C-alpha cells in the first residue's frame, strides 16, 4: 500500500520533484556518439521491432533516438517484420518532427526534404537473411533507393544500423543474420527486460552502443544539449519523479521492516 501510495502521490498532488538524473549504464554514451557523428544526409537502417502492444515502454525509449536522427538530418530507412510496425514508427516520427519544427532556431532546414522510407518485410526472420545478402531484392518496390544498395558499392551505403526492439531475440536475429553479412555497426535500443541478454553483445563488440529501458532513454537524452518539446518533456519528468518516489517508498519499507523486527525481537528477549 505504501509503495502504491508513493507512486500515486506525484500525480495526485502535482509534485515537481525529486527529479534527479537517470543512471548512465555502459553503452549509452557509445550509442549517443554513434548517432551524433552521423553527417548530414547519411543513410541509416532502422530495424523497427515493436508495435502498439509494447509501445507503452518503447515509445519513451525510441523518442530520443528519433529526435536525435532528425536533428542530425539523417536519412532513415525503417525496416519492420511487424504488420503495424511502420505505423508505430511513423507516429513517433511525426511527434518528434513537430517538436523540432516548433522550437526557435532548431529544426529541419527550410526547403529540405528528410527521407524517412519504410519497408514492411513479410516472411519472418527469413526476410532478414534476404535483406543482408540482397537488399536490392528485399527492398525492391518499397524505397526509391533500393537499387543503389547493390553490393553496398555506392555512396548510399548505410553508415549505421539501429535496432529498436522490445525483445532480445530481435536484436540477436539482426546481429546473426544481418550484421555478420553487412559488417555495419549496430546500436540497439531495447526494453529493460532484454538488457541482461543483449548486454554481452556490447561487451563482445558486436554492438556499438546499447540503450535499454526508461533509465537508458533518460540518460541518453541528458547527454544532448537540446530538450524535447513541452509534452515529451512532461512525460519524462513525470516518469522520473514517480520512479524516484518509488525508490523512496522501497527504502521506507525496508527501514520500517527492520525497525519492526528489532522491536519484536526486543519484546521476545
Task: Give a nutshell description of this structure.
This protein is α/β, with parallel strands linked by helices. 52% of the residues lie in helices and 12% in strands.
The major β-sheet equals: 6 strands, parallel
> Distance between the terminal alpha carbons, to the nearest Å?
30 Å
CATH class category name of the largest domain: Alpha Beta
Radius of gyration: 21 Å
Strand content: 5-15%
Shape: elongated
- Looking at the structure, the CATH topology of the largest domain is Rossmann fold
Number of H- or I-type helical stretches? 10
Mean pLDDT: 77
State the strand order across the main sheet.
Answer: 3-2-1-4-5-6
Helix content, binned percent? 40-55%
Helix and strand pattern: HHEHEHEHHEHEHEHH
Q: Stretches where pLDDT falls below 50 for ≥5 residues?
A: 102-115, 145-155
Tally the beta strands: 6
SSE blueprint and pairings:
Blueprint: H1 2-13, H2 28-36, E1 43-49, H3 55-71, E2 75-80, H4 85-102, E3 116-120, H5 126-133, H6 135-138, E4 160-165, H7 168-182, E5 186-190, H8 195-203, E6 209-212, H9 213-222, H10 230-268
Describe what you observe in this structure.
The protein is elongated, with a radius of gyration of 21 Å. Strand 4, helix 7 (168-182) and strand 5 (186-190) form a beta-alpha-beta unit. The chain has 10 helices and 6 strands; from the N terminus they run H-H-E-H-E-H-E-H-H-E-H-E-H-E-H-H. It is of the alpha/beta class. Mean pLDDT is 77; it is low at 102-115 and 145-155. Helices cover 52% and strands 12% of the residues. The chain has helices at residues 2-13, 28-36, 55-71, 85-102, 126-133, 135-138, 168-182, 195-203, 213-222, 230-268; strands at 43-49, 75-80, 116-120, 160-165, 186-190, 209-212.
